[in-house]
Amino acid sequence: MDVQLKRGLLDVCVLAAIQHEDSYGYKIIKDMKPYILLSESTLYTILKRLEGAKMLTVRTAEHDGRLRKYYRITDAGRKRIRDFKEEWAEMTKIYCFVTEEDKK
Questions:
Q1: DSSP of 56-103, one letter per residue?
Q2: Domain of residue 10, residue span
Q3: In a structure prediction context, what are the per-residue pLDDT tens digits for the chain, which is 104 residues long?
Q4: Rounded CA gap, 28 and 34, in Å?
Q5: Count: domains in the chain
Q6: How far apart are the C-alpha atoms of 59 and 72, rounded to whole Å?
Q7: Number of neighbours of residue 33 by Cβ within 10 angstroms
Q8: 3 state SS of 16
Q9: Please, which residues bridge with residue 67 across strands?
């Protein structure tokens, strides 16, 4: 798979994982595990990139005596998910065109 395409897909997957509630690294990985395997190092690189793009914000809170970073999706992050869904509909049409011969 094209590296840039995969990168974009992973970004949207992380945004989707936090779209309904704030979350933290370990929980994001756990929530995504049934769909895609993601290492901690990859996740934190994505989170940093998404924060830089203003698609999420970060807050720190104490949990069991330790500080934990919680991530919250922003309006820009929600827009990215909406844009992805529109783009994916177009990609599906292209996929159907490309694989049409396979159905014959």
A1: EEEEEEEETTEEEEEEEE-HHHHHHHHHHHHHHHHHHHHHHHHHGGGG
A2: 3-103
A3: 676 777 889 999 999 999 999 999 999 999 999 999 899 999 999 999 999 999 999 999 998 999 999 999 999 999 999 999 999 999 899 999 999 877 76
A4: 11
A5: 1
A6: 8
A7: 10
A8: helix
A9: 62
Distance CA 91, CA 100 (A): 14
Task: State the first-to-last Cα distance of the chain, in angstroms, to the nearest integer.
Answer: 26
Helix/strand/coil percentages in the chain, nearest 5 = 60, 15, 20
Whole-model pTM? 0.85
CATH number at residue 34: 1.10.10.10
- What is the Cα–Cα distance from 64 to 51, expressed in whole angstroms? 25
SS3 18: coil
